[in-house]
Amino acid sequence: MILQPLCIINALIQLPEGVAVKGGLRTEGDRIAAIGAGVTAQDGDRIFDAGGKLVTPGLVDLGVFAIDKPAFHFGGITRAALMPDQSPPLDHPARVRFAASSGKPDLWVHPLAAATRGLEGNDLAELALMRDAGARAVSTGRRWISDSGTMLRLLRYCAMLDLVVVPHAEDSGLTGPAVATAGEMATRLGLPSAPVEAEALAVARDIALAEMAGARLHIRQVTTRSSLDLVRAAKARGVAITAGVTPAHFMLSDIAMSDFRTFARLSPPLRAEADRKAVIAAIGDGTLDMIASGHDPRGPEDKRLPFADAEPGMAGAETLLPLTLTLVRDGVIDMARAFQLLSANPAKLLGVDAGRLEVGQQADIAVIDAERPWIVDSDKMAAAAGNTPFDRQPVQGRCIALFKGAAQVA
Amino acid sequence: MTSPEPTRASRYPAGAAAFPHRHLLGIAGLAPHEILFLLDEAEQWVEHNRQPHKRHDLLSGLTIINAFFENSTRTLLSFEIAGKRLGADVVNMHAAQSSVKKGETLIDTALTLNAMRSDAIVIRHASSGAVRLIADKVDCPVLNAGDGQHEHPTQGLLDALTIRRSLRERGKNEEFNGLKVTICGDVLHSRVARSNIHCLTTLGAEVRVCAPPALMPEGIEQLKVTPFHDFDAALDGTDVVMMLRLQSERMQGSFIPSPREYRHLYGLTLDRLAKAAPDAVVMHPGPMNRGVEIDSNVADLAGRSLITTQVEMGVAMRMACLDVLTRRTRNVEGWQ
């Protein structure tokens, strides 16, 4: 518990809706006590002058593969939902409990429980025990549960436990050993590839089963036009579905794999340019609910390999904020919506009282210079490894101060 | 080295500008005149190899390592003979995937080879892009002897050389422009198909590819070829029929129901060959599945089958590539 209240003054505060307003924000304990134009510091407050910069909720990153505190703090992330794809997988209550406490107090980790033992897609893991140990949702990790009967039983069970199910949406029968999306680039490079419909098939099935089961479904990465259409249609008929994406899929297409650049080896793989544009449109029209980093730092032993032998994933925590802000600058979304995508919506899915600057919420606060230019440099990243496909790319927007539960952590 | 006919020299720039690449990793990206330069360079070695005394001292004192991370008999042999005929010290490293672990080991192996100060490294590897990865780590020229399903550039070149010489020998125009070539078989998994497609389309040939849907890569038409599923249609009026090997594990039900069904649809029989141009030639990179993708009486058809000529051209072509890529090392006039 932070005893000394924090008062952020001279701020441009991004409330959950509308344009940012000038004013201040004051905390008591680890909660927000007051926000607005009239907020002033009281005796004994610790005062932080935001210098007129943007003050936003800390980012809530739904779906990371490693707990990498320096990278998260660099990127303005105060909470991260840890994927169950760990070694060993998060399929046991003790491991979930350990993961849930592993970042505190300055980073809160919300584990996603492995849906099945060993993530193997066969036997249900101890989901209720893991929920009570701190799991905030259930995930199939980077794997697809190919048996529809198992998936239906999982969804029904999770509906009963009120746990969101976060599947990986790629039909494994179609993907097989694929490391790329079928198309000109994969054909030129001679890489094992799978048709883009592998994603839509998986999304269609999981929506159908979730509707049947009355379960809540969150598809962590929806990256193709046809699967976005399925999500859009499901939402229109009232299905309890949310969907997310990572910046790689709205910034890059499969051309980034040219020269066999393994930093562009992702799961799901990069798509065609038309799909990239469809992702941007879906962020704009509300089909996509959140943007996550998918942070997965991988060193040379996993990445300095022939493309198909390299591990998938990118270190994304540091670039999540600036790449999302490109959508604001391009007029796809406004700033309020950016922080719904980055903070409010993932916090809501995880059921945590954060992600919004409102009285009574956890004081997870980022101070952001949205215009500040910097250059991504894979050799100088805060992350455990520099595997970013955005190396040498100039970006704008940086977290200049970060508070977790009112305590400054960066 | 000068080309056998002076008229050809005008096709490409002088000295190192004729082939300004350090490595030979693929055909994609090579200019037409660069390909023609390599073909012209190979011509002299074809003649040389037909002499009883075949040893030349061009690469004398140089060390060439053939690092084969995937099993190979004919390509390895061809590269070994090519290097030895030029007087180089050739060392073969058999490192099938089972013995050499993946991962850093591949880079480590590359650094090890580099530290042994070889003057050229010839690499075959089962993963697409692996040869390029190694090439970025070593100081000497690297020749790709086949990487996964990506490229097999010397095969593409030797096939072009074979075609060109066959045209010449039959008194035809040896231009590739307008030549109709049909490549049939497992295009999806074939690096030979990709290198041939790049090579032949760059030289102006009209290339058709033929495969069942499961073995046809998506977006192949973006490589300036016309895809066919019907072999008879693909053969219609074609000048060159190039058959690809179908791996036996792919014809037991996973991609193809059975070998005999594959032959039924895609086997090159005498009857099928009759649908091609009257004097069409037949090629196969080997090793052949006789009676599956090609019938024996087609494979052995005198005057029409160039399959053994391909093997002969392979040695000459690889000699030319080894010569050209080591010219910088050897301080050849105009190549420093």
Describe the protein's architecture and organization:
The complex is a heterodimer of chains A (410) and B (336). Chain A has helices at 69-74, 93-101, 127-132, 148-161, 172-175, 184-189, 197-213, 225-236, 247-251, 273-285, 300-303, 320-329, 335-350, and strands at residues 6-13, 21-28, 31-36, 46-49, 54-57, 59-64, 77-82, 108-114, 137-139, 165-166, 180-181, 193-194, 217-219, 241-245, 290-291, 365-375, 394-404, 407-408. By secondary structure, chain A is α/β, with parallel strands linked by helices. In chain A, the strands form 4 sheets. In chain A, strands 1, 2, 3, 4, 5, 16, 17 and 18 form an 8-stranded mixed β-sheet that branches. In chain A, strands 6-7-8-9-10 form a 5-stranded parallel β-sheet. In chain A, helix 4 (148-161) packs across helix 7 (197-213) and helix 7 (197-213) packs parallel to helix 8 (225-236). The two termini of chain A are 18 Å apart. The model of chain A has no long low-confidence stretch (mean pLDDT 96). Chain B is of the alpha/beta class and 336 residues long. Helices cover 35% and strands 13% of the residues of chain B. The two termini of chain B are 14 Å apart. Classes of the chains: A alpha/beta (410), B alpha/beta (336).
**Gyration radius of chain A, in Å:** 20 Å
CATH class of chain A: Alpha Beta
Computed structural class of chain A: alpha/beta
Unreliable runs of chain A, pLDDT <50, ≥5 residues? none
Strand line-up of the largest beta sheet of chain B: 7-6-5-8-9
Using a beta-carbon cutoff below 8 angstroms, give the protein chain pair with the largest interface and the number of residues from each chain. Answer: A-B, 23 and 26 residues
Distance between the termini of chain A: 18 Å
Percent strand of chain A: 15-25%
Number of helices of chain B: 11
Uncertain residue segments of chain B: none
What is the CATH H-level superfamily of chain A? Metal-dependent hydrolases
- CATH topology label of chain A: TIM Barrel
Count of DSSP-assigned helices of chain A: 13
Percentage of helical residues of chain B?
Answer: 25-40%
Number of strands of chain B: 9
